[in-house]
Each structure stands twice: as structure tokens, then as C-alpha cells.
């Protein structure tokens, strides 16, 4: 699953990868598949050279996401946070040069 989001003039590309846990020593697989978000951010929607990524994103608890939808939203949230920080740091550096 892959989605392209727009935030403050930047393109946030989020894709989801399924991650199967390793089999335990007993060989019993509990059937739980985890998901990882892969995040790439571009300075605009032309998707030229990325300004970040690709970066693998897990939940803040250092565990994988439980569903594809959760991974998409988690990746988008992290992408928005990065774009906001990137824009604010650019604005701060411009104000310092005036």
C-alpha cells in the first residue's frame, strides 16, 4: 500500500511493508504480521530529489504497527512533523540573516 500526501507544499510519500516476525525456537507462528511505514519526503510534488528518505518508521514504542492503516497514518504524522521542523528551521535561518 502506498499513498502520496501533500503538506505545506511538500510531498510526503508513505508506503507500507509487511513484516513477519522470526519463528520462535518451538516453530509455532502466532499468525501476527506487523507493518512498517517507509517515508520519503520531497520539496514539492514533482518528486524530484528527496530531501529525506527513504526512512523506515516504527511506532514510538519501538514496535511495528498493527495494521496497514495505522502504518500509513503513523508515517504521514512523522512526515508532517519533519516538514514542519524543516520549514521552521529554514525560516529561522532566513530571519538570522536579515
SSE arrangement:
Layout: E1 2-7, E2 10-19, E3 34-42, E4 50-57, H1 68-96
Antiparallel strand pairs: 1-2, 2-3, 3-4
Any overview of this molecule?
The protein has one helix at residues 68-96, and strands at 2-7, 10-19, 34-42, 50-57. By secondary structure, it is α+β, with helices and mostly antiparallel strands. It is elongated. The chain has one helix and four strands. Strands 1-2-3-4 form a four-stranded antiparallel sheet, with helices on one face. A hairpin with a 7-residue loop joins strand 3 (34-42) and strand 4 (50-57).
Search tags:
98 residues; alpha+beta; 4-stranded antiparallel beta sheet
- Which stretches are low in confidence, meaning pLDDT under 50 for 5 or more residues running? none
Give helix % range. 25-40%
Strand order of the largest sheet: 1-2-3-4
Report the sheet with the most strands, covering strand number, pairing sense and barrel closure: 4 strands, antiparallel
**Which oligomeric form is depicted?**
single chain
| Count of the separate structural domains | 1
- The overall average pLDDT, rounded, is 83
Structural class: alpha+beta
SSE string: EEEEH
Computed over alpha carbons, the radius of gyration is: 17 Å
Tell me the strand percentage band. Answer: 25-35%
**Through-space gap between termini:** 45 Å
User: Count of helices?
Assistant: 1
Tertiary shape: elongated
Give the number of DSSP strands: 4
Amino acid at each position: 500500500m502506498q499513498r502520496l500526501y501533500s503538506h505545506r507544499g511538500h510531498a510526503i510519500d508513505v508506503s507500507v511493508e509487511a513484516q513477519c516476525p522470526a519463528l520462535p525456537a518451538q516453530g509455532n507462528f502466532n499468525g501476527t504480521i506487523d507493518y512498517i511505514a517507509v517515508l520519503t519526503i520531497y520539496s514539492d510534488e514533482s518528486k524530484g530529489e528527496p530531501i529525506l528518505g527513504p526512512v523506515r518508521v516504527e511506532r514510538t514504542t519501538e514496535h511495528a504497527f498493527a495494521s496497514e492503516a495505522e502504518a500509513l497514518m503513523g508515517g504521514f504524522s512523522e512526515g508532517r512533523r519533519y516538514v514542519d521542523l524543516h520549514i521552521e528551521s529554514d525560516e529561522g535561518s532566513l530571519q538570522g540573516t536579515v
